Amino acid sequence: MTALLLARIQFGFTISFHIVFPALTIGLASYLAVLEALWLRTGRRVYLDLYQFWLKVFAVAFGMGVVSGLVMAYQFGTNWSAFSRFAGSITGPLLAYEVLTAFFLEAGFLGVMLFGLKRVGPGLHFTATVAVALGTLLSATWILASNSWMHTPQGHAVVDGRVVPVDWLKVIFNPSFPYRLLHMVVAAYIATALLVGGAAAWHLLRGREDGRVRTMFSMALWMLLLAAPIQAVIGDQHGLNTLEHQPAKLAAIEGHWERTAEGEGVPLILFGWPDMQAETTRFAVELPRVGSLLLTHSWSGQIPALKDFAPEDRPNATVVFWTFRLMVGLGLLTIALAMCGLLLRRRGRVYATRWFLRFALLMSPMGLVAILAGWFTTEIGRQPWVVYGLMRTADAVSPQHGVAEVGFTLVLFVGVYLAVFGAGTAYGLRIIGKGPEAGEPGMAEGGPGRDRHPMRPLSAAPEGVDEQGDGAAPEAPAGGGAR
To answer: Does the pLDDT value for residue 444 go beyond 90?
Structure first.
């Protein structure tokens, strides 16, 4: 164990927690905007009931996302100060743009979204919901612009050992940015649809088949049917971009060590074990020429091999080989779930086929698992570079920290994160387990001076959700005193 390895583990641990919650807020914010738009257009109460129900889950996810993001950002100055000195003139302003646009937009309209339906009227409230949804998308845009620049840097110059921006449009719209942004946003929508569909499947399996549960199950399946195939196309284009700009990463993902003879094509290794020491993929199960077809869109196309790169410039193929296959495998299962839902819908059995409901329930967290697997593939595949081709990760770590300091803070992070975010996740699952109720008291029912809540995001979730038999929040005293 070295301070560098521990710092990498610590950052990987904190960002793994953080990425889950913004992904859910991106998807849920857009879902809430759709629900409120449908309610305003049709006047059907079912959409408002679903809006109020998922708003509670959104509030919990948003609160935990903000907290985990703040902690992660501080590590740039503590554990990665050399990186901050080298690239801070680019990554710093991009993160500041996120605060000035996305975070201010979310913060400005979040209170209205959570507590203001009766106070400002449906039209203005819908505007607030759309503004928050737009804010989540803007946040993803700036974060991924910064991260994508680290993978495919351009629009800069290196002056006196530091990066200086010379063309901000090129910095932001770097070669990998469009693919990463689309890939991440669609992944967030898919993960949210799987969560919504799994929640509905849970209630359908327990015998609850009211209109609210059936509606959210139906909407989730339609979203998966639309988004999952689109994600496959985006992933294919992202792979072509990776082949052009990060060939070592692609070779590691494929476990491809030796160049094949001209005209033979590259096989697709379905399964195997890339051995970094022996420089071979053991127990490989291959499909001849399929690798060329998928990776170059030609029958005999060639891709770089890992042996084309010096050993110190190779990513850890053992890890990214399997994280990539986990992501792709879950994507294929998601497409299968959506197609099965379409067939059962045509037969009128989509709400009553128990094996399908169990399948949907099992897939409920898999969208988030796929996001984490994809993120590990992307970030570990960039190694040994923190800024691809410009700065190695070993040169980015803070030189003043030793093993003891980083190890102590890592243990502290693990303990606090498991306690805080474990409790928050359990609370959110309890809310989902209660399910939507008809005419839930809250924003739609409470007038001025009634049903007031403390103006904090987590306050939108009901207190004592596991004790209240009807799923309603206990009435707070006037003035919104917190318990």
So the answer is: no
CA 308 from centre of chain: 33
Domain segments of the chain: what residues? 3-245+323-460, 251-311
What are the percentages of helix, strand and coil residues in the chain, rounded to 5? 70, 5, 25
379 DSSP assignment: H
Mean pLDDT of the chain: 86
- In this structure, the number of other CB atoms found within 10 A of the CB of residue 247 comes to 16
Helices 45-78 + 3-42 axis angle, to 10: 160
Concatenate the DSSP letters of all residues of 279-294 into one string: TEEEEEEEETTHHHHH
Cα gap 307→303, rounded to integer Å: 12
Q: Given the DSSP bridges, would you call strands 162-165 and 385-387 parallel, antiparallel or unpaired? A: unpaired
pLDDT score of 207:
84
Length of the chain as a residue count? 483
| Region of 263 on the Ramachandran plot (φ > 0 left; ψ -120 to 50 alpha; else beta) | left
pTM, two decimals, is 0.87
* Residues ≥6 apart with Cβ < 8 Å to 415: none
Q: What is the DSSP string of 388-437?
A: TTTEEHHHHS-TT--HHHHHHHHHHHHHHHHHHHHHHHHHHHHHHHH---
Please answer whether residues 363 and 329 qualify as being in contact, where contact means their C-beta atoms are separated by less than 8 angstroms: no
Tens-digit pLDDT profile for residues 157-168 = 999 889 999 999
Q: Which bin fits 269, alpha (ψ -120 to 50), beta or left (φ > 0)?
A: beta
Q: 271: helix, coil or strand?
A: strand
Q: How far apart are CA 356 and CA 211, in angstroms?
A: 19
Contacts of 5 (CB under 8 A, 6+ apart): none
In order, the DSSP letters of 109-168 are HHHHHHH-HHHH-HHHHHHHHHHHHHHHHHHHHHHHHHHHHHHS--SEEEETTEEEES-H
Question: What SS3 state is found at 104?
Answer: helix
Which is nearest to 63 in space by CA: 334, 461, 469, 480? Answer: 461
The label of the residue with tokens 């850890």 reads 316
Helical packing angle, 366-382 and 122-151, nearest 10°: 30
What is the greatest pairwise CA distance in the chain?
Answer: 78
Taking alpha carbons only, the member of 321, 171, 177 closest to residue 250 is 321
R_g of the chain computed on alpha carbons: 24
Contact 176, 148 (CB under 8 A): yes
